[in-house]
Every structure is written in C-alpha cells, then in structure tokens.
C-alpha cells in the first residue's frame, strides 16, 4: 500500500524567456556545406557575403514548458529504505535534502531554464522525513520513502540572423529562432511511502492486514 505525505512545494506558473544577441558568421566553403564561425569586429566581410544566414552565438534560450508526468524516486539507502521483522513498530524521523533536477541544458543558461519552467532547476530543498509503520504480522517487510517529482519538458532555441557587411562580421538578429532540442526539469514536491514483502521471490505490496500507520 502507498500513502501520500507532506506536500513540499507548489509549482509556479511558467514564464517565457527571451533571447539575446551576439556576433557570428557563416562561411561558405565552396561546397554544399555551411560552416558557422566567430568573426571579430575588425574582420572584413565583402558585400557578397552580406545577408548570409548565421547563428547568434551565446543566444540559446529555453521556452515553452509542458507538464509531462509525476515521477517517484526510491533510493536504496537509509533513511529512504529500511527493513524489519513484524510484528513491531518502525519509525523514521530524519532531516534530509533533495535536489531539483535538469536532465540537460542543451546550451541554454540555467536562468533561462528557470524562467521557462517556473522553478529553480538546480535548487536543493530541505525536508523532514517523519514516517511510522505498525507491522502487524510475522513477516519480513521492506519499508521505503519515495521522493515525488513533477516533470516538465522544455524546448531550447537559438537566435538566427544575417551577416552584416562592412567594418565587421556581425551576425544581426532577425527576430527568428531555430529549434535545438528538448529536455526535462524535475521539481521535488512531495514524499510518498511504500511497504513490500517477499512472496515467492517477488516483492509485493503490503495489505491492510499486514501494516497500519
């Protein structure tokens, strides 16, 4: 059996991030391939190179969060996991720290990702584990405390532009973005607990006749 426990945090509303600007250029090598390279302010760019598409460097930005699922993590170390023979009372009381998670930044700044998903993706939170079980039958039980996360998907884009000819090789942002990829951010929000025992080589959930709280 499982039981929902203390709710730790409420996920904030999403805020759309905005992009920045920078310097870059695209150099044609005479083939069908297009190479992106940095160009200093003093680099000469001919008129025929002007208006060539380019990617603004350091311009990646996270946008558009989407709720994906609720996910639980069950660690195999104390105080997240313990075991005991019944009948007896088992109690866990301990302060612990849990961290939010971002699976990949894809080059987007953490600040931009925080704005997109509505919470700090690398924040560490303190929580108190306070669980008590009454094991009622003579059986060996495994007791677990799980960390609940709300999982959000976000996209990463990069700013596009055109080379500006003249005294330098500046990539001028044209107001458009290209899609880079998607990643996930996990926000810790609650604790859960689970009681199991071994039955014919498999872990099965405890019944009401086995355990109370």
By secondary-structure content and strand pairing, the structural class works out as mainly beta
Strand content: over 45%
Helix fraction by DSSP (H/I, runs of at least 4): under 10%
Poorly predicted regions:
1-45
What does this structure look like?
With 213 residues, the chain is mainly beta. 4% of the residues lie in helices and 57% in strands. It is built from one helix and 13 strands; from the N terminus they run E-E-E-E-E-E-E-E-H-E-E-E-E-E. It is rod-shaped and about 85 Å long.
Topology of this protein?
Layout: E1 2-7, E2 25-28, E3 34-37, E4 53-55, E5 61-73, E6 81-85, E7 88-99, E8 101-102, H1 110-117, E9 124-135, E10 140-164, E11 170-199, E12 202-205, E13 211-212
Antiparallel strand pairs: 1-11, 2-3, 4-10, 5-10, 6-10, 7-9, 8-11, 9-13, 10-11, 11-12
What's this entry about, in short?
The chain is mainly beta and 213 residues long. It is built from one helix and 13 strands; from the N terminus they run E-E-E-E-E-E-E-E-H-E-E-E-E-E.
Features:
single chain, 1 helix, 13 strands
């Amino acid at each position: 059996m499982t039981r929902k426990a203390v709710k730790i945090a409420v996920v904030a509303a999403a805020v759309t991030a905005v992009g920045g600007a920078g310097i870059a250029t695209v150099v044609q090598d005479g083939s069908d391939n297009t190479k992106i390279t940095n160009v200093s302010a003093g680099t000469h760019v001919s008129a025929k190179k002007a208006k060539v598409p380019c990617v603004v460097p350091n311009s990646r930005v996270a946008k558009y969060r989407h709720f994906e699922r609720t996910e639980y993590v069950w660690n195999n170390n104390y105080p997240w996991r313990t075991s005991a023979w019944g009948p007896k009372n088992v109690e866990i009381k301990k302060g612990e720290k849990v961290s939010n998670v971002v699976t990949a930044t894809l080059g987007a700044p953490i600040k931009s990702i925080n704005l997109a998903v509505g919470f700090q993706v690398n924040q560490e939170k303190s929580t108190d584990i306070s669980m008590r079980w009454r094991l009622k039958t003579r059986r060996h039980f495994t007791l677990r405390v799980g960390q609940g996360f709300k999982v959000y998907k976000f996209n990463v884009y990069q700013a596009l532009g055109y080379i500006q000819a003249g005294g330098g090789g500046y990539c001028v942002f044209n107001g458009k973005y290209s899609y880079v990829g998607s990643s996930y951010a996990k926000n810790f929000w609650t604790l859960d607990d689970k009681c199991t025992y071994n039955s014919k080589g498999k872990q099965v959930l405890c019944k009401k006749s086995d355990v109370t709280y």
